[in-house]
Amino acid sequence: MILFIERELFPLDDSELNCGRKYSNKIVFSVFNSLKEGLKIKDITSATNVPETTIRNWKFGYSNLFKTNKKLDDKLKKETLELLKDGCSIPYISKKLKVNYDEIRLFLKKELDDYTYSTIKASDRKLQNDSKILTSDLSYILGVMYGDGYFNGNNQIGLGTKDRDFMEYFSYILKKWCNKKPSKIICSQNTKPYYKSLLSFKDANIFIKKVVENRDKIPKQILASNNKKIFSMFIKGFSDSEGSIVILNGKYGTIKISNQNTFVLNQIRNMMIKLGFDKDKIKIVLNNKSKNGYVYILRICSRNQLELFNQKIGFTIKRKQYRLEACLKNNLNINGGDS
After folding, report:
1. Residue 238: which of 305, 306, 166 has the closest Cα?
2. H-helix or E-strand containing 80?
3. Which residues lie closer than 8 Å to 256 by C-beta, 6 or more apart?
4. Highest averaged pLDDT of the listed ranges 31-40, 71-80, 88-97, 262-271
């Protein structure tokens, strides 16, 4: 695949600058000098009051900073689609054809379906070092990646779910974590609404893949953390994906967290014990056998343990959280039982 090569930051010709923009040439040159010196974008924003998104657009050539009146005629549209077919990115096509980035982007957005369009927007910019520090947001993302989260062949991090609130929250946390907004797609699965969040960010994809590896064990950075919020957010992300609330005959309530990997379930159990859960009241048992092998559950069925789960972890998905709260509010006998 041909990747867009960042243009040389300096020298810039005054005639190339769009002086009709909101920012003066002096501000623009100051920003580009700071970028050339290797300063962080957020620090440049503090010094110049130019938003981070604007600076990033200038840096990677995604904006109309370098003005051209060239329009996409039929010939250029055909060339655009041919370059896209060859694996070229939108910034590369814009530079190659000498047509504004937004002109190319809007044409492709209209020409392609939502999913195809989302797959060509994978950013080649670098993930900021601050995003590589283990935080509760990153821990939640990693928890989801051990559940319903996935990687695809287009350098994307994705989530597919029947719960819109799960998709919305995951998208929110992704944006907060890496400062890039994921695409949100609504489609259908088995005639029912299905929601997808797709983050097209190559460097973020590489980073997350490196951290989780083949997902046969929880990253040691999480297990070694002294921050209990790291534990609870990882478990929340995993539970949003793999957890369920079972109430049997209106008498028994149980939280089940499912997975085929008993080693990962044991690691989660150990994190829960560090959060204050009773090791004798959270157990891993065989649930059933599927076409892919045995499925195990981390089972929580003691009332005080469910209350602790509600206080320290909880669910993002409203239907699960409401079910848990209803189970506790109704004062059901939940000292035993299973589905």
Report:
1. 166
2. helix 74-85
3. 243, 244, 245, 246, 287, 297, 298, 299, 300, 339
4. 262-271
Q: What is the DSSP string of 219-244?
A: -HHHHT---HHHHHHHHHHHHHHHEE
236-329: CATH topology is: Endonuclease I-creI (3.10.28)
pLDDT score of 218: 97
Top pLDDT among 49 and 177 is at: 177
The fold adopted by the segment(s) 129-215 is Endonuclease I-creI (3.10.28)
| CA–CA distance, 220 with 142 (Å, rounded to integer) | 12
> Comparing 129-215 with 236-329, is the CATH topology the same?
yes
Integer Cα distance of 237 and 178 in angstroms: 17
Q: Per-domain residue ranges for the chain?
A: 14-119, 129-215, 236-329
Element (H, E) at 252: strand 252-259
> CB under 8 Å to 293, separation ≥6 — which residues?
260
